[in-house]
Amino acid sequence: MFEQLGLIGCGLMGGSFALAARQAGRVRRVVGYSPSANTTRRALERGVVDAVAAGAADAAKGSDLILVAVPVGASARTFAAIRDSLRPDALMMDVGSTKRDVVEAARRALGERIAQFVPCHPMVGREVAGVENADAGLYAGGQVIITPIAETPPERITQAHAVWQALGCHTLQLTPESHDAALAAVSHLPHLIAFAFIQGVAAQPEGHRFLSLAGPGFRDFSRIAASNPDMWRDIFLANSAEIKTQLHRFRAALDHIEQLIENGNAEALVAEIRTASAIRAHWSPAQPVKPTA
Amino acid sequence: MFEQLGLIGCGLMGGSFALAARQAGRVRRVVGYSPSANTTRRALERGVVDAVAAGAADAAKGSDLILVAVPVGASARTFAAIRDSLRPDALMMDVGSTKRDVVEAARRALGERIAQFVPCHPMVGREVAGVENADAGLYAGGQVIITPIAETPPERITQAHAVWQALGCHTLQLTPESHDAALAAVSHLPHLIAFAFIQGVAAQPEGHRFLSLAGPGFRDFSRIAASNPDMWRDIFLANSAEIKTQLHRFRAALDHIEQLIENGNAEALVAEIRTASAIRAHWSPAQPVKPTA
C-alpha cells in the first residue's frame, strides 16, 4: 500500500490509474496536478483525486508513488519540475507510448534520481480522452511493457511489476530501444495510416458521402483514427526514425500489391493476400511474462 | 414466401442467407450448389440446404428465388450456366462487393433475362469464411446496397428490398458506378492497406516478435486483413480503377503527414491529426433509406 499517489496528468490514462489503484487497495490518498483547472475540478468531482496540487512539484512532494501521465512531449519539463521534490524512497513511473525519448529526458532532468524512475508503457487506451472517461477497469487484462535501464535497481523493477499486476495487468520487459522499434511497427504506423486514410477519404468532393456508406470493416479499421491528437503528435515526433523505417516497409508492400493488381496477376495477388490473411488469422497477443528482477 | 431458394455458392454469405431466409419464413426449401463436394456435404449436414444440385443450372431450375453468392470473378460463368434454367418469374440477386463488373457480366450472359436480376451488396461479413461459419444472424441489422440498372423493373426492386428487410437489413439504393466509387474508398482501400500493413510488418527479421507485442489498436485495425483471399483478389481486380484513384489520394495524405513529422512541424501535425480524429469521432453509418421503386 502506498500512502500517497502523486498523479501528474489527470487524463484518461492517469485518471484511470488513480481509480484502479484505489479500487485495488494500493493507494490511500491521491494528490493530482493538471495544467487545466477544469480537469482538476472534474477529477475532484469524480473522486479521481482527493486533493489538487498547485504544480507538478507539489503533487510529487510527500508522495511515495508518482505517476507521470502526460503527453510524452511534456515529459522533460515534468521531470525537471519534480526533481527536487522527490522523496528518496518514492517510486516514479510513466505511461508514455515511446520510451527512448522519455528515458533521455529523465536522464537529463533527474540526475542520480533516475534510479527512482521505472519507464512503463501500459498498452491500453481508448479513442476517447480526458478525465471524464477515466475508468477503473481500463487497465485490467492489459499488457504493460516495462523498460528498465542500466540505472534501475532490481528492487524498483520488481516493485513496478507488482503495481501493474495488482491492477490486473500482464507485465513484460524490453529495452527502451526494442520497445520503440516494435511499437513503431504495430502501433505508431497503424495510427499514422489511420489518420492519413481518414484525411485521404474526407478530402475528396464526395468524401463525406462515401464515409456515410461505410460498414463494420471501416468502423474497426479506422477506430484508432479518433485517438487523442496531442498524444499522437508527440509520439510521431518522438519516434520519427523508427516510424520512417516502418513507413518505408509499408510503402514497399503497398506498391507491390498495387503492381500485382495493375498487372492483373491474379495468382500472385491471391498468394500475397493469403499470406497476410493467414498471419492475421493466427495472430494472438503475447503471453504474459513473469517479472524478472 | 418463396417456394424454392436456389443457392449458388454455399459459403459464409450464401449459407447465412439460406439460414436467415428460412428462419424468417421466407423460403420453404433450399437447393444448393457449390463446386466443392465437401462444402455441399457440410451444407446438408448443417441444414443450410435441403438438397444438393449437380450444377448451378440445376440449382436455378424450379427456383423462384436465386441467390448468386460466389466470388465476383465467378459471376460471369455462373450467369452463363443458369441463363437457360431460369423460371420466368424468378427473382435473382447476388451479394458481390463490386457491382459494375457483375452488372456487365450479367448483361453479357443473361440477355433480356437481365430484368430478373437485381444486383445487391449486403455490407456484412466476417473475417472467417465457409459454410461452417454460416450464421442465421449475419445479416440482421446490416446495410444492403441495391444497385438497380435501367433494365430492372420497379416491382423487382421492391421485391428485392422486401427480401432483405425481412432478414432485418436496412436497404438503400445507388447506381453500380456510385457504389463502386464509394466502396473503393471505404472498404476496398482499407482491406488493401490492411493486407499490405501485415505483409510489411511480417516481412522484416523481427516481424513476428513485433506482432506478438501488438495490442488492442492493432487488433481492430488489422482485423480485416484476415479476410477471404479469393474474394478479395476478385474485388481488387474487378474495381482496380477506382481503387487506384483512392490509393493515390491515400498516398498523398500519408506523404503529407510524413513530411510534417520529418520537418518537426508540431503545429501543422497536430492540426492534421485533429481533423482526422474529429471526422472519425463524429462518424456514424448511414441512416436506413426507404425503398424507392
What does this structure look like?
Chain A is α/β, with parallel strands linked by helices. Chain A folds into 2 domains: 2-174, Rossmann fold, CATH 3.40.50.720; 179-281, 6-phosphogluconate dehydrogenase C-terminal fold (Orthogonal Bundle), CATH 1.10.3660.10. Helices cover 50% and strands 13% of the residues of chain A. Chain A is built from 12 helices and 9 strands. The first copy, chain A, has helices spanning 12-23, 37-45, 56-60, 75-82, 100-110, 154-166, 176-202, 207-212, 216-221, 229-238, 240-262, 266-281; strands at 2-8, 27-33, 51-52, 65-68, 91-94, 117-118, 120-122, 143-146, 170-173. In chain A, the strands form 2 sheets. Chain A has a 6-stranded parallel β-sheet. Chain A has a 3-stranded mixed β-sheet with strand order 7-8-9, covered by helices on one side. In chain A, strand 8 (143-146), helix 6 (154-166) and strand 9 form a beta-alpha-beta unit. In chain A, helix 4 packs parallel to helix 5 and helix 7 packs across helix 11 (240-262). The longest helix of chain A is centred in the middle third of the chain and has 27 residues, at 176-202. Chains A and B meet through helix 7, helix 8, helix 9, helix 10 and helix 11 of A and helix 7, helix 8, helix 9, helix 10 and helix 11 of B.
Record keyword descriptors for this entry.
three-stranded mixed β-sheet, Rossmann fold, six-stranded parallel β-sheet, homodimer, 12 helices, alpha/beta, 2 domains, 50% helix, 293 residues, disordered C terminus, 6-phosphogluconate dehydrogenase C-terminal fold
Oligomeric nature of the chains: homodimer
**Lateral strand order in the biggest sheet of chain A:** 3-2-1-4-5-6
Q: Which of globular, elongated, flat, extended, rod-shaped describes the shape of chain A?
A: globular
The average pLDDT score of chain A comes to 95
Largest interface: A-B, 92 and 92 residues
Radius of gyration of chain A: 21 Å
* Total DSSP helices of chain A: 12
Number of strands of chain A: 9
Counted up, domains of chain A total 2
Task: State the end-to-end distance of chain A.
Answer: 20 Å
CATH architecture of the largest domain in chain A: 3-Layer(aba) Sandwich
CATH topology of the largest domain in chain A: Rossmann fold
Order of helices and strands of chain A: EHEHEHEHEHEEEHEHHHHHH
CATH superfamily of the largest domain in chain A: NAD(P)-binding Rossmann-like Domain
